[in-house]
Amino acid sequence: MLFAAVLLTCQLVNAAPKIQQVEPLCWWTDMETPLTLMFHGEDLKDAQVSVQQVVKGKVMRGACVGLVPKAQHNAESPNYLFVDMSVNQPGTYRITLKKGNKKACYDYQINERRGGSRDRKSFDASDVVYLIMSDRFVDGDASNNSTKNTREKADKSNVNGRWGGDIQGIINSFDHIAKLGCTAIWPTPLLCDDEAAWSYHGYACSDYYHIDPRYGSNEQYALMVQQAHAKGLKFIMDMVPNHCGVAHWWMKDLPYQNWINQFPQFTNTNNCFTANYDINASEYDRQLSNRGWFDHPMPDMNLENPDLLKYFQQWAIWWIEFADLDGLRVDTYPYIEKIPGSKWLAAIRNEYPYINIVGECWTRPAPAVAYWQSGVKNFDGFDSNLPTVMDFPVEESIRQALENDGSGWGNGLTRVYDAMTMDYQYADVNKLFTFLGNHDMARITDVVKDKDPRRVKLAYVLLATMRGIPQVLYGDEYAMTSKGKDPSNHSYLRAPLPQASEVTPAMQDMYDFQSKLFQWRKNEPVLHFGKTMHFFARNNTYAFFRYNDDEAVFVFANAAEEARIIPTSTYAEILSKYKAVGINPINGEQVDLRKDNLEVKGLSTLIVKLTK
User: Fold this and answer.
1) Which residues pair with 150 in a beta bridge?
2) Which among 23, 264, 338, 465 counts the fewest CB atoms within 10 Å?
3) Are 152 and 197 in contact (CB under 8 A)?
4) Does the CA dihedral 463-464-469-471 come out positive or negative?
5) What CA–CA distance (Å, rounded) separates 286 from 585?
6) How many CB atoms lie within 10 A of CB 271?
7) Which of these ranges, 169-178, 253-262, 414-423, 588-597, has the smallest mean pLDDT?
8) Residues pairing with 53 in the sheet
9) Residue 563, number of CB atoms within 10 A of its CB
10) Residue 13 has pLDDT above 50, yes or no
11) Where are the alpha helices (H) located in 353-489, listed in sequence order?
């Protein structure tokens, strides 16, 4: 066991009341966040609460000072009780809920907080994040592919079914990920999703405090994070506060009727989260955006309920503390009720001031994304408390630039230049989450013209050298495709990572290229936190410098099929500040940027590292 954070067996006396769930599962001393326990069972309304310490299995008599009930309140359902606790000392505590002469007892654990936990660092622009589709990635333990207590069983013949990827498969792949040059891992949700079908995606949670047994256990998850840290890899947890799954245990007995957003009949979100900042928006659209259900099996959570908001604040903090996480990714962030969503993040950042949290804000153009980044001076005074947003505008520009030959006004890499001109909209461009694709969109190799690996490599050079925090979708290091299947069908693109015997020379070449690129990037602070200067062109090229006071990296990307001459004299205003002769980090060759006939082949790039 990594921690003492484990619940002891529930103690029951007489027939009622009964305790079935207590969440959070445990807590720690020295936390900024006050502890409120949610009890669920039978007939818990108005129960009297008392606490005694347990030492070596013996219940101590007298006043308990280590864990003290401060206040309590009922829910609408008589089967819930919320109890505010004062946490003062680590130990095991017997909590008794009493009604008349009947009582139920529960042993609860308070742990000593690990040193330095509050000041933990996080992922940032010096990292490269590796995104894993958890069920599809690698099956490291076939024995847990189907379990007795989960409904959907493994069926690799069903493209929409579960295939057996698991925690052990992720652990087995640490060396592959680290060799690629990635330094952080983001798996799609590993919490229990007990839907009868389509449960492999993991975004319809049925238990917020337990890892799905088809992936492993809570203890195995925490051990995985510990082992990742030993390999120099950070770990990011994917969280979904916007919706749960209809299979969640509380759907049979909601604490409050407004615990979820309900309608007379099934009502989808309108997917119009621009209504959150649109001055012309109707209240109808605004409400439907935040309160409509994401899909049929995904009830929309109402974070305006204060007990639910508190529940989710503690839930996120619990996982960070329990598993020693390095950061969070938040699914469908703008679909959450706006102000409660901001309060949710504020509580997490109050507990961990330096933690990074990236939100999926899937929209365009840049001002619509920038609205959700913390620190932006929004017209309405709103601050999301979300440090990092996903850069969908630049992702789209790169894909559109490379999906054809780039001919025509405003096409090709001009699209990338135009997207980058919007950087002034953001509070911090180094906290943009950059990517070429993810588990919800066609793979980059399926998108680029002719599935040409040269275009894929060009895209990865841009990703590695532009501002922001790069993310790689698993399998794209091998230029994976949907193998002739419909690339718009997410289930086809979410194929397993190829095994070593399946890796062709072309796939290995792509891996080696990206590995060299990202390994070099690790040691280039100018790429992590430097400024950007770029230069306009309409010949399907894009040139930019990442620079600081001491050094620069020059990048020239040529997406045309014919060679281009670099107009080096155009860059005099910045080139004059550095030595004209630099090094190409990909091949180690010297490059003299004073020459006026430097040529870059079609569908390729030149990178030059410059110093003063």
Assistant:
1) none
2) 264
3) yes
4) positive
5) 50
6) 15
7) 588-597
8) 93
9) 12
10) no
11) 366-370, 392-402, 414-420, 444-447, 453-465
- Using the structure block, give the residue that is written with the tokens 């002469």: 101
Is 260:246 a contact under the CB 8 Å cutoff?
no
Joined together, the tokens standing for residue 325 give 């996480």
SS3 2: coil
CA angle 419, 425, 430 (to 5 degrees): 80
Mean pLDDT of 70-90: 98
Residues paired with 84 in a beta bridge: 36, 71
- Please enumerate in sequence order all residues whose Cβ is within 8 A of that of 553, keeping only pairs 6 or more positions apart, or say none: 465, 524, 526, 527, 530, 545, 546, 547, 607, 608, 609, 610
pLDDT for 487: 76
User: What is the β-pairing status of strands 35-42 and 388-390?
Assistant: unpaired
CA dihedral 161, 167, 169, 172 (to 10 degrees): 170
Percent over 90 (pLDDT), the chain: 94
Query: What are the start-end ranges of the H helices in 437-580?
Result: 444-447, 453-465, 490-493, 505-522, 525-529, 572-575
- DSSP class of residue 257? G
Rounded to whole angstroms, the Cα distance separating 253 from 79 reads 8
- Catalytic positions are 331, 360
How many Cβ atoms from other residues are within 10 Å of residue 549's Cβ?
Answer: 10
Residue with tokens 């921690």: 3
Are 493 and 487 contacting, i.e. CB atoms less than 8 angstroms apart?
A: yes
Rounded to 10 deg, the angle between the 453-465 and 392-402 helix axes is: 150
CB 438 within 8 Å of CB 471: yes
> Which residues contact residue 587 at a Cβ distance below 8 angstroms, ignoring those fewer than 6 apart?
none
Residue 215 CB neighbours (<10 A): 28
* Separation CA 453–CA 514 (nearest Å): 12
pLDDT of amino acid 15: 53
Element (H, E) at 13: strand 11-13
Cα(494)–Cα(480) distance, rounded to whole angstroms?
A: 10
pLDDT of residue 160 exceeding 90, the answer is yes
Q: Using the structure block, give the residue that is written with the tokens 């194929």.
A: 495
Angstrom distance (rounded) from CA 312 to CA 498: 37
Q: Compute CA distances 472 → 143, 392, 401, 416, whole Å.
A: 29, 14, 19, 19
Cα angle: 365, vertex 369, 370; to 5 degrees: 110
Does 4 have pLDDT greater than 90?
Answer: no
CA-CA distances (angstroms) from residue 582 to 138, 551, 591, 593? Answer: 41, 10, 5, 8
Report how far Cα 77 is from the mean position of its chain's Cα atoms: 33
- Asked whether 28 and 320 are in contact (CB, 8 A), the reply is no
Give the whole-angstrom CA distance, residue 432 versus residue 434. Answer: 6
Measured CA to CA, the distance from residue 438 to residue 201 in angstroms comes to: 13
The pair of three-digit structure tokens given for residue 287, joined into one six-digit string = 């409400």
In single-letter form, the type of residue at position 137 comes to: F
- SS3 at position 97: strand
Distance CA 608, CA 612 (A): 13
Q: What is the DSSP string of 404-427?
A: S---STT-TTHHHHHHHGGGGGSS
- With beta carbons less than 8 A apart as the criterion, state whether 326 and 401 touch: no
The rounded distance, in Å, linking the Cα atoms of 604 and 599 is 11
Residue 239 contacts residue 328 (beta carbons within 8 Å): yes
* β-strand pairing of 551-558 with 531-535: unpaired
Question: 0.85 cut: is pTM over it?
Answer: yes
CA angle (502 as vertex; 500, 506 as ends), nearest 5:
100
